[in-house]
Amino acid sequence: MFDPRLLRAFVTIFESGSFTAAADKLHLTQSTISQQLARLEESVGHSLIDRTARPLQLTASGEYLIGYAQRILTLQQEAEAVLKDPAGSNPIRIGLPEDMM
């Protein structure tokens, strides 16, 4: 199972184009972002980003995983939103002046 924090680091590195920008966006240090990516790469058994390429480029494995990672994070956000406020769970309150009752 993928750790969402590691996937978020990977996706943010890809979307922002650099480790530094990803660290800034996630309010983490660049070292932490690098460590999170290394842990994800270790868990999948493949390098995901070509660290020598400028601009940053995904490896073949990274290209394969990025779409899944983005979908996993989107689904997680949707599930959290639904569980925080499932349809109809919050009552609607309507205020009326006393003379209308």
UniProtKB/TrEMBL annotation:
Q: Does the keyword Membrane apply?
A: no
One Pfam assignment: HTH_1
Give the record's keywords alphabetically. Answer: DNA-binding, Transcription, Transcription regulation
Record SUPFAM superfamilies: Winged helix' DNA-binding domain
Q: Which InterPro entries match?
A: LTTR (IPR050176), LysR_HTH_N (IPR000847), WH-like_DNA-bd_sf (IPR036388), WH_DNA-bd_sf (IPR036390)
The molecular function GO annotations come to: DNA binding; DNA-binding transcription factor activity
Q: Does the keyword Kinase apply?
A: no
PROSITE patterns for this protein: HTH_LYSR (PS50931)
The residues covered by the HTH lysR-type domain are: 2-59
Family according to the record? Belongs to the LysR transcriptional regulatory family.
Protein name (database record): LysR family transcriptional regulator
The source organism is Acinetobacter baumannii
